Amino acid sequence: MTTVQYEAIFQQVVVLLQKYAPQPGPIQEDTELINDLGFDSLRVMEMLHDVEDAFDITYPLNTMSDLRTVKDFTSQIQKIIEMS
Amino acid sequence: MSILNKLDAIAKTRKALLPPGIDPFNVVIDEIYSATEASICGQRVLLAGSNNYLGLTFDRRCIDAAQISLEKEGTGTTGSRMANGTFAGHRMLENELALFYGYSNAIVFSTGFVTNLGVISTLAGPGDVIIMDADSHASIYDACRMSGAEMIRFRHNNMVDLDKKLRRLGSRAENTLIIVEGVYSMLGDCAPLKAIASLKRKYGAWLMVDEAHSMGVMGDHGRGMAEAAGVEQDVDFIVGTFSKTFGSIGGYCVSNHPELDLVRYISRSYIFTASPSPSTIASVREALRVIQENPQLRTKLWENAELLYQGLKRLGFELGPDAGPIVAIRVPTKDQTMLAWKALLDKGLYVNLVLPPAAPAGLSLLRCSISAAHTPEQINYILDVFAEIQPLMAAPE
Predict the structure, then answer these.
(1) Each residue of A14-69: pLDDT tens digit?
(2) Which residues of chain B carry a pLDDT beneath 50?
(3) Which pLDDT value is given to residue A3?
(4) A24 close contact with B: CB closer than 8 A
(5) pLDDT at res. B357
(6) Chain B interface, best mutation among A34, A46, A52, by max B CB count within 10 A
(7) What percentage of chain A carries pLDDT values higher than 70?
(8) Inter-chain contact B153–A45, Cβ cutoff 8 Å?
(9) Tell me, which fold does domain B11-47+295-393 have in CATH?
């Protein structure tokens, strides 16, 4: 994992989360999407379209159930970028 | 802590949402009088949200066919399709469906929902990819999850997004099943099937179309959106239901791929559930004949649909994009939608109440579905009642 790339992805993810979070608040790596930001599965799916456009990736729905924290989300995006 | 704690949130939401006197999501029809009239809460109401597109639930020919079968074959099969639940009628219906579509194979299931579960989860598996329209029905989402295939959504009816996602798959596109609906159930808008079929060909993918709300409604022969768009030969699998136009219950899949027949040996929703009762099958077979021999029913349906759509448009309501048998009225807020729905019911009109997440894009809707059985007077009544309650639906200041 290259730290620079992870950091860049993280910064973009924070911007997108702030746009879509039903309960906006400070966002750190360990911030939880559901418990802290108030996301439900529908809201996450709405955000995914923007995530896909921002990183030019396709985000499979199968991996959504593994997402808990912002770090999980960022790492998953990084993984998809590296595989594409 | 209990396994039931997770339901607390639902209980709170329900309490906050429900108008006094009736739960809009658990409406009981006390008595049903015809394809368009019933009694709810002791009051006679006009039904404008029943998906009974051709009004066949009370068609004399379908009722007679079911009654004869009931006397002759009994109340149920008491078995699954794989065991003792395939009667001659089930097979004859499959042959008739295949003939109607001009495809080589057909399979009948017990409901439309389990048709999608059974067919999709069998056809696609780990290592495959499914690309589905974002506004797809819950049965498609559940089936895709069950399949173990990689699940990808494309923006609703957005061909640029579908193209992009197919392109990114590279050679994996050949192992990709695209799933769309002919007509989408909530807003009544149609899939751009010509463009979708063209992308399917371009990338060598597979295509499934769910014609639940378009069978009997679209196309010169009523075969659905694929027929209307002239792309039937590009569609690998068509799925549909008997619970709307056919006025009964059950589901089916037709295809030119002989492998469809093998689904019978694998699909758990085919093997481990009781088959449709013989009288159900008899009424569906008769309905299929009625659909084919009475194109005037479709003409009447579209006349009624136009009358309602244009009438509501003239009144200034914000509607779905396409005129058709499903007419969805957008209401600014959830609370207004609930109030308006109750006011309509109090005035003797039943429509569907649709709140997020059931409606796409966070919309709150009053969803009407029109029938060939509606009379012009009934449609005028629908318009009059909507005009009366219109102030309840004004955009908040």
Answers:
(1) 999 999 999 988 999 999 999 999 998 888 888 999 999 999 999 999 988 888 99
(2) none
(3) 65
(4) no
(5) 76
(6) A52
(7) 95
(8) yes
(9) Aspartate Aminotransferase, domain 1 (3.90.1150)
Q: Is the pLDDT confidence value at A1 over 90? A: no
Closest residue on chain B to A58 (Cα): B165
- Taking contacts as CB-CB distances below 8 angstroms, the residues of chain B near A40 are 357
| Predicted TM-score (pTM) of this structure | 0.95
Cross-chain residue pair B153–A48, CB shorter than 8 Å = yes
CA angle B91, B94, B100 (to 5 degrees): 145
CA-closest candidate to residue A61, choices A45, A50, A78: A45
| Complex confidence, ipTM | 0.88
pLDDT at residue A45, as a whole number: 87
Contact assessment for residue B38 and residue B31, using Cβ atoms and an 8 Å cutoff: yes
Q: Which residues of B318-348 are buried (b: 16+ CB within 10 A; e: fewer)?
A: ebbeebbbbbbbbbeeeebbbbbbbbbbebe
User: Is A49 within 8 Å of B155 when comparing Cβ atoms?
Assistant: yes
Inform me whether the C-beta atom of residue A3 falls under 8 Å from chain B C-beta atoms: no
A79 touches chain B (CB under 8 A): no
At the top level of CATH, the class of B60-293 is alpha beta
Answer yes or no: do A42 and B153 touch at CB < 8 A: no
The Cα–Cα gap between B226 and B192 comes to: 10
CATH topology (fold) of A3-83: 1.10.1200
Question: Rounded mean pLDDT of chain A?
Answer: 91
